[in-house]
């Protein structure tokens, strides 16, 4: 019998955007043809990081030829507020400024150059206030955003009494610039009756719509957001695309003309928030068998000047504070600390990587103090089926051990170790280091409410199909996956299906495309919509053939009865259905079942499932110069049953390299005045083709457990980023091979400069 199984048979479908991307034909906001009368916007940002505005003089700028107007907070018709979780972020500064570059005024001009030039003619007098750029200092001053959060499992106090080994220390991880290829931007156009349409480069169309409506003091239905695709988001456009879109809509509201704003790269670097730097304290306790019995940590998150998504990110740090390990006694406390830098925001991993780094530091520290291998401690403490996470969820369908053990045998770890030892023995000025990095990442928005999505599917009378969802394509390939779901469900060829833009008028109240959950949530909504249409088509086909609807299957564009092909085609059936005046459209809805979380107890079952994996990383350090390369990263990753291996491989490789960048080379620096020093690509180094590991091998651990992923194909966007933490330890271990006495602090990124210092720190000749 012919059955509809899964779309995995078509698992190597190419990303539907690839051809247009390489030909430069894909459309981004800046490619949308501008209409006559368009004004160009540019923000005047605060020149200093903290102070009280005494006087603002925009008159000189206004007088410049070609300048239409200069707007300030006084022109905002509704609430001058764009804060999502906490209302602490004005669209335009009123009396206080809290970071360098904070928007104070908006210039609107007839062309882009005039707008940019006019900004320099705005004058502001600011009475300076003390500037804080260190989260621990902010914490000491009591400058905390939102609630202090504590996750507890067991009782660390009594557990430490039973530990043979106890170590305490500090771990620091730096920020990270998103560096999406497409900078932030939006283009807003007036429609009739005061309606506004915004073309936005956002991961969260509904967030843009909601905040813009509130700021303009008009209902949400008057604002339409349309998104074709993003040239990268990485979390940087989950919340922070809103400001720029809202500013363009504000301009439309005030002038009645279309307003466009595409940020210059230097503006984007200076004004937008980044991954949160963290400064953390840990205390780890182990028994004589190297079982981790107790773990305590305090995380000081550098939130920047306003809340943005920091409270949610803080929470994910706690969710991932034990990474892939079972620790029976945990006490983890996290503080979101307000500093005078741009508000930090979502970035691939969303606080999880920062938490996972700290436990890896603690384990590495314990191993070197005890004089055992880090790998031994890691392996002995991996999560097992039925273990309890510190937040109360019970580990199910655990692949921690299977990924680890498979990686060790598949890639012959013993042989890799022997080769490294041999190499290090023979070489004086080059040393290799090895690290294993297991990951465990929870899939679902930690805010349970957000785990829902909708899709609108139209079958047109000629048999072609249009699919709208809340998913935003940002290069991750979600549109290809949505197309696969629709084509598979309806039994049609992929060419028949078109994925429409993401638009708040077609699909409302969406969650942002984030948390790795977009394909799951929206894919399941597409599935639901297709099932509704399918049921109608089956009824009509059954009627035509004189059989029961449940005997009908649609596959390969043909109607099958009890597994046998009939001569009725997809197109014929659709036409028949149309002629019978049946509904060929459906709205699908999905809300993740079973998940819940109680913040008063900090316990629950917040994640639909977890993604696991293990990476083996080998680095070579040049011990004269402090330079390093990565020989290889060999990964066994838990994809469930991948529905698109090319896309999933691309996400894994991209995530890995982005993680390596964060951990080893991207050094984000603000000075004491809160000025971004790494403010251009000459001073901020991201991985280029030479920095990529010479070999990346990804083995697909194919598992077929029932899970809540779309067609059992697990979420893949964020988890691989955390493999990059392995690169940090591989470099560190190479340094230790050269200089066993090094006292290098646990401070990421481990830049060549820090490597060089570490190589000769306490070096005995
Ligand atoms: N965004 C969000 C996220 O709002 N909530 C989350 O839990 C999350 N997790 C990862 C990435 N973005
Ligand atoms: Mo995100 S960090 O926008 O999934």
Structure description:
The protein has 765 residues and is an alpha+beta fold. It folds into three domains: 18-26 and 452-591, Aldehyde Oxidoreductase, domain 4 (2-Layer Sandwich), CATH 3.30.365.10; 35-130 and 178-271, Aldehyde oxidase/xanthine dehydrogenase, molybdopterin binding domain (Aldehyde Oxidoreductase, domain 4), CATH 3.30.365.10; 278-446 and 599-759, 2-Layer Sandwich (Aldehyde Oxidoreductase, domain 4), CATH 3.30.365.10. Helices cover 29% and strands 26% of the residues. The strands form seven sheets. An eight-stranded mixed beta sheet has the order 3-5-1-12-9-10-11-20, with helices on both faces. A six-stranded mixed beta sheet has the order 7-15-14-13-8-30. Helix 10 (352-370) crosses helix 11 and helix 17 crosses helix 18. The longest helix is centred in the C-terminal third of the chain and has 28 residues, at 518-545. The protein is globular and about 85 Å long. Dioxothiomolybdenum(VI) ion (MOS) is lined by residues 203, 235, 238, 346-348, 350, 514-515, 718. Dioxothiomolybdenum(VI) ion is lined by residues 203, 235, 238, 346-348, 350, 514-515, 718.
């Amino acid at each position: 019998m012919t059955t509809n199984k899964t779309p995995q048979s078509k698992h190597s479908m190419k990303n539907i955007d690839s051809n247009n991307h390489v030909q430069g034909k894909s459309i981004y906001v800046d490619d949308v043809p501008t209409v006559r009368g368009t004004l160009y916007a540019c923000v005047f940002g605060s020149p200093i990081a903290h102070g009280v505005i005494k006087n603002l003089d925009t008159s000189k700028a206004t007088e410049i030829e070609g300048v239409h107007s200069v707007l300030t907070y006084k022109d905002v018709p509704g609430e001058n507020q764009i804060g999502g979780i906490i209302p602490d972020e004005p669209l335009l500064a009123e009396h206080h400024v809290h970071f360098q570059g904070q928007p104070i005024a908006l210039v609107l001009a007839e062309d882009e150059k005039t707008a940019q030039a006019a900004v320099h003619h705005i004058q502001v007098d600011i009475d300076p206030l003390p500037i804080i750029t260190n989260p621990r200092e902010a914490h000491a001053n009591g400058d905390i955003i939102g609630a202090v959060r504590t996750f507890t499992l067991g009782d660390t106090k009594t557990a430490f009494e039973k530990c043979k080994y106890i170590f305490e220390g500090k771990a620091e991880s730096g920020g990270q610039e998103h560096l999406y290829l497409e900078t932030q931007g939006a283009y807003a156009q007036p429609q009739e009756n005061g309606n506004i349409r915004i073309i936005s480069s956002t991961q969260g169309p509904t967030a843009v719509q909601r905040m813009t409506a509130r700021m303009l003091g008009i209902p949400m239905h008057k604002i339409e957001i349309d998104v074709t695709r993003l040239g990268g988001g990485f979390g940087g456009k989950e919340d922070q695309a809103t400001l720029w879109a809202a500013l363009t809509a504000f301009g439309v509201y005030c002038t009645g003309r279309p307003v466009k704003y595409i940020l210059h790269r230097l503006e984007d670097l200076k004004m937008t928030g980044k991954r949160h730097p963290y400064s953390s304290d840990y205390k780890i306790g182990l028994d004589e068998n190297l079982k981790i019995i107790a773990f305590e940590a305090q995380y000081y998150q550098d939130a920047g000047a306003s809340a943005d998504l920091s409270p949610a990110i803080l929470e994910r740090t706690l969710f991932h504070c034990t990474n892939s390990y079972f620790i029976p006694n945990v006490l983890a406390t996290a503080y979101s600390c307000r500093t005078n830098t741009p508000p930090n925001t979502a970035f691939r991993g969303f606080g999880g990587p920062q938490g996972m780094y700290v436990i890896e530091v603690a384990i590495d520290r314990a191993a070197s103090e005890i004089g055992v291998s880090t790998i031994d401690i890691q392996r002995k403490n991996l999560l097992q089926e039925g273990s309890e996470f510190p937040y109360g969820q019970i580990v199910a369908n655990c692949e921690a051990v299977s990924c680890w053990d498979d990686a060790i045998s598949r890639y012959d770890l013993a042989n890799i170790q022997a080769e490294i030892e041999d190499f290090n023995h023979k070489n004086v000025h080059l040393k290799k280091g090895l690290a294993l990095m297991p990951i465990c990442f929870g899939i679902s928005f930690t805010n349970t409410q957000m785990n829902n999505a909708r899709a609108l599917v139209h079958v047109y009378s000629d048999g072609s199909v249009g699919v709208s969802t809340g998913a935003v394509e940002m290069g991750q390939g979600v549109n290809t996956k949505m197309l696969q779901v629709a084509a598979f469900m309806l039994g049609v060829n992929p060419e028949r299906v078109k994925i429409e833009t993401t638009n708040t008028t077609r699909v409302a109240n969406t969650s942002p495309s984030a948390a790795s959950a977009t394909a799951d949530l929206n894919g399941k909504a597409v599935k639901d919509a297709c099932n509704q249409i399918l049921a109608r088509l089956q009824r009509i086909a059954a009627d035509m053939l004189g059989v029961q609807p449940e005997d009908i299957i649609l596959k390969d564009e043909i109607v099958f009865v009890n597994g046998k092909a009939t001569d009725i085609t997809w197109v014929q059936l659709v036409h028949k259905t149309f002629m019978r005046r049946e509904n060929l459209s459906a709205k699908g809805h999905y809300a993740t079942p079973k998940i819940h979380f109680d913040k008063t107890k900090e316990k629950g079952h917040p994640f639909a499932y977890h993604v696991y994996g293990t990476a083996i990383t080998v680095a070579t350090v040049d011990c004269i110069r402090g330079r390093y390369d990565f020989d290889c990263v060999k990964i066994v990753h838990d994809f469930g049953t991948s529905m698109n291996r090319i896309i999933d491989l691309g996400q894994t490789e991209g995530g890995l390299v982005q993680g390596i960048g964060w951990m080893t080379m991207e050094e984000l620096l603000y000075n004491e005045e809160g000025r971004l020093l790494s403010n251009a690509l000459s001073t901020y180094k991201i991985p280029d083709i030479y920095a990529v590991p010479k070999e990346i091998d990804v083995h697909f651990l194919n598992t077929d457990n029932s899970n809540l992923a779309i067609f059992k194909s697990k979420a893949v966007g964020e988890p691989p980023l955390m493999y990059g933490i392995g690169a940090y330890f591989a470099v560190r271990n190479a340094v230790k091979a050269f200089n066993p006495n090094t006292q290098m602090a646990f401070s990421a990124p481990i830049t060549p400069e820090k490597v060089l210092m570490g190589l000769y720190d306490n070096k005995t000749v």
